[in-house]
Amino acid sequence: MAGSAGNHHVNSGLVILGLVVVLLGLAADRAQAQLQFGFYKGKCNATDVESTVRSVVWGKYQKDTTIVAALLRMQFHDCFVQGCDASILLDGPGSEKNAPPNLSVRGYDVIDAVKTALEAACKQVVSCADIIAMATRDAVSFANGGFYNVQTGRRDSASPAKNVALPAPNIPINQALSLFARKNLSPVDMVYLLGGHTVGVTHCAFYQSRLYNYQNTGRPDPAMNTTLVNTLKKTCPDPRTNGPTTAPANLDQNPASALVVDNSYHKQLLRGNGVLQVDQDLASRNFVTGLIVSNIAARTDFNARFGQAMVNMGAVEVLTGKQGQIRKSCRAAN
Fold this sequence. Notes:
two-stranded antiparallel ribbon; disulfide bond; Haem_peroxidase_sf; iron; hydrogen peroxide; calcium
């Protein structure tokens, strides 16, 4: 009986591993027919739209390399609320921008600068939703994340703050998988997209309980590397002491790679060095996502597959054709 049970577990593991490999292959094949590669070719007078975006983003990146993380976060927050429609860019007290999860989103100045350059070349031709996608792609490529082709042809729309429901840093993995599935994104897409944390930082409040009172145990999260626990405690005090928080924590705990878009984040998860609970749980508390993390950490094609996951996310619930509008200013509806 013991031998039969052992074989059953081995066979089950092989089946699931095979499923992961299949998912990795399928993730590269999905695309939205409504969007097109090179949508703006010949549509902005003599201006090359994508080259203009790249030039403006490069100027911003040279002054502030953290715009990579800022734009990745902006695109994720935009696409996960009523689709990739640039609604996060709209000003106003009831706008997405002013919903609590979005108050710390940055990078609006980058989008504004690109929009200004493009409006000077061709008025109301390029959507703000497409600018987010192209600018994020370019920032990723400047951070050694590789250049991936972006589909364009999105239209702009609006969504109120009340519609903002984004995954929390401690969301259970099964719930996260369900949320991504509702956006037509696979488990592989999810694990790659969370890999955008490779250039991100977070603050004490979002991981404090993992250091001192994980799930009300009075102890640290056992999945967290003890060296990391001790390191983070130096800048994130026990809430019972009210000590000062001195610095944010890198989500990629490899200092040499904290500003590089690569698979270092996934490698760190395998060592128990995930700072946010959702990150570490990918590797430690879900069998399928754990296999995907291990697979990504061992692969050498991260750039291409991360880029494909970004393309897949960029096709979530998009407006095209005559739907929505092309804004004059990304901060206000026409």
